[in-house]
Design a protein that fits this description.
Layout: H1 2-18, H2 20-23, H3 26-29, H4 39-50, H5 58-74, H6 80-95, H7 103-128, H8 135-175
Length: about 180
């Protein structure tokens, strides 16, 4: 049943990522700053931090599936998000074992995760020749606004999903089920 919940939430976020610019105020959208919503990644990141243990990798599996869906629906190249999301979630899953999962650590890991995922996507787009922007302009006009926008979403989602993920994780451990 949780698999259905995760899939529905991720599908909902997939749809809303596409209309995110319509929800933002006009002065943010028409300016030089470019904000990329990585809401699916933020949800999967929170899943990796609070739901998963060392024996499962649900966020990585969902990252592959929904990364492919993002590639199909929103990008012109297959595999960019499908590669960036699971690789970054794998790194975050390993880093979370070094720290106690609290709000500050979650924000710190969120900054690392969003930076890695957006940088991987940017590097692939440069390698393929889709974009040609210098690193300083990328940092100022894309990475920092994307980081701030997604951290606001992370802060909003944190109290909503944290306790739910912890509860589901303890139920999973109590029942001894895989999902």
């Amino acid at each position: 049943m949780r698999q259905l919940y995760f899939s529905l939430i991720l599908f909902f976020l997939l749809v809303f990522e596409g209309i995110a610019f319509e929800l933002l105020p006009n002065n943010l959208v028409v300016g030089d700053l470019f904000i990329i919503p990585h809401w699916i990644f933020v949800f999967l990141f929170l899943m990796a931090v609070f739901y998963e243990n060392n024996t499962n990798a649900y966020s990585i599996i969902f990252g592959i599936i929904f990364g492919l869906l993002i590639d199909i629906v929103y990008t012109g190249i297959l595999g960019v998000y499908m590669f960036a999301y699971p690789v970054t979630l794998y790194i975050i899953s390993n880093l979370k074992n070094l720290f106690h999962a609290n709000f500050i650590v979650t924000l710190f890991l969120g900054i690392i995760g969003i930076t890695i995922v957006d940088s991987i996507i940017h590097l692939v787009y440069i390698a393929v020749g889709i974009i040609n922007i210098g690193w300083s302009n990328y940092l100022i006009y894309r990475l920092l606004p994307t980081l701030v926008g997604n951290l606001i979403f992370l802060i909003a989602m944190y109290p909503i999903v944290k306790n739910r993920f912890i509860k589901w994780k303890s139920e999973q451990l109590d029942q001894g089920t895989a999902f």
